[in-house]
Structures are given as C-alpha cells and as structure tokens.
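User: structure tokens for this one?
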Amino acid sequence: MKKTALSLMLAGFALSSALPAYAATNAGSSQGDLQVQFTSGLKSYVDSTGKHSLQSAPYITSGTLMAPLKALTNGLGAGLKWNASKKQLEVTKSGVVIIVKPGSDQATLSSGKASKLAARVVILDNHAFVPAASLSRLLGVQVLWNNSVKRLTLKKTSVDNGVKPIHFSYDLNTDAQGWTAGFADLPVDYDKEIYNLDGKRALLPVNGNKTDYGFMLSGHNRSDDLFMFMTKKIEGLQPNTKYDARLLFDMYTNEAGGQMGIGGAPAESIFLKAGITSQAPKAVVTGETNNAHYAFNLDKGNQSTEGADLKLLGTIAKPDDKEGYQKVKFNYAADITTNAKGELYLTIGTDSGFEGLTALYFDNIQFNVTRK
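Assistant:
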C-alpha cells in the first residue's frame, strides 16, 4: 500500500494540461515581473508563461497557504526530484538544494542546516503540497501575501527595473515575513525573568480578533533606557544607488497619555523611532567584562533625542482614553543609498525612559522606494 501511494504521488507530479496561455501581468504591483501566483481555493495558478490548471486547489491551514510543489517549482524555474531510496523530495534552484519529506515540517539545505516550515508537507490527491511561502523564502524568492483575496505572489529577488516605484507590503498574517526583533541598552547578564523580553508575530489584541496578526515587541525596562526594535532586510535593489524611500506602518498601543510612572510616563516617556539604513541594525556587546552590556550599533540618539540613523516619530501614547489597544499611524521618509549588494534595512524601535512593562504591536507595514 505504501509503495502504491508513493507511486501515485510521483505520477501526480505531472500537472493537468495548461489552459490557453496569456501574457501574465503583475496586477498593478511594481515589484518586478511576476514569477508565480497562487490563490486559495482556485484550481489554477499563474506564472510568467501564463495561466495553468491545477488538479487540486491551494488551501490555507494554520494561517499558511499550501500549494502543489510541482507547480511551485515549475513557476520558479526550480528542479524537483523524488529520491525513492530516502523517500524525500529534492528541490534545486541556482545551486541551492532543499530537501523535504512528506509528513514532516522540516526542510534540510544542502549545507546541512535545518529549517522549520510553517506546516507539514502533505499528500493530497496524489500531489505533494507544501507551505509555499516558507519554501520560497529558502530559495531566495520574495513573498507577498494579499489577505483580502487570499493570494500568494512570489517575485524575483531582483525587484528594481529602474522604471517604476517599488512597493513592499507586510501584513504578517501568514508569517513574520522576515521581520526579527532585537534589544539593546541592557546588561549582557540581564535577568530574563524580570526583563520579559519578547519579539514575535502575534494576534493583534483588538476587538476579539482571531485572524489578524502583527509583530509584537515587549519588554520590562529595568536598565533605565531599554531599546526594543524590529528589523527587516530589503533585497533586490540596485547596488550603491540612491533612492527616495518612505516607510509607513500602524502601531497598536494600550498606553494612555497623562499617566505617571517610575522613571517617566508609560506613554510620553517611550519614544518611537524609525530608520532606513544600508547597514544591518543589531545589538552588539560593549564595555568591560564586569560591566558588559548590549548597545545598538547604529546612531539612534537617546530617548527624546534622535540620531543620524534613526529619527524620532513621536511617543507611544494612544489617541484617546478609551479602554484597550488603539491604532496609531506613522510614516517616515528619507533619501538613502543602498549598499554594494543592493540592500536596505528597515528598523522600527522604542527608546524607553519608563521603567515598566511595555507591549506594542505593529502591522500593515508599507515600504516604497523610487530610484533618484
């Protein structure tokens, strides 16, 4: 029975006959030529050669879109091989080899490094279905998710054709989309039990929400000056090139203005900052061994003072005294030159003078660049 199932699975890799091809467009996105696009519940997909039928439609499980692996690799121009002796699937693109196994949520790269996928690889109607966003990112492909139509779009890594403005959008509903957290201005040997540091994708704490996610930053300032930040690397731009750049995002805060707190007010003494840089932001160890602490490697200024790299956007006070978390919109614009690899780094952070616990959520992050 197992041998028969595996044979059927391999036979199922052959897609159904394609529908009549048409010139694929990027549907108004300016991120470069379309590579492949899957929509939940739709028995067809689009790649650079046109529209193709699918035997089984992509679907969503645990917040991630599952798509047929054969269609995914076809659209991305990747190779796909079944290793019968090891009972594993081997995906190859541009020298990168990724190994996945039916029933497993682990992917193994040719380097030997393991990476956890957003969901398990499953067999459906004799086809291998994979978490498309997770696997695509391992191949170096840019991922966009349109939550309103449940559509996943995969783009070339190089996104700048030198003609149109380029738009990046992160709603965080599928996964963290490459955003990571960091913390600075605290001792290297800090007590984890009392600092309560956390940075991750999490449900937005509003209106009984059970479906919309954002990125949470949380920490208890025990060092008089805790800096919490989230960052994302942007790739595919022209190297050593100047761009007009704009970063827009929503912040969800539960801190009302006019309150008293230890060291400062819980709202007005926490300063929101943002930056667009060509250097990767990170916390670095500095100071003597017996007084070592984590410092931010870029110039962020100090609390209400902005720095050369991060600018002050305001405080975390919510707009009124209503109970619960409320949304506040922010935006930041800058002229910035990419590094030699065509990269930029986005940073959003808070510089705290309030010696208490703060938890904030960020969502609907938009980044637009236009070559100067």
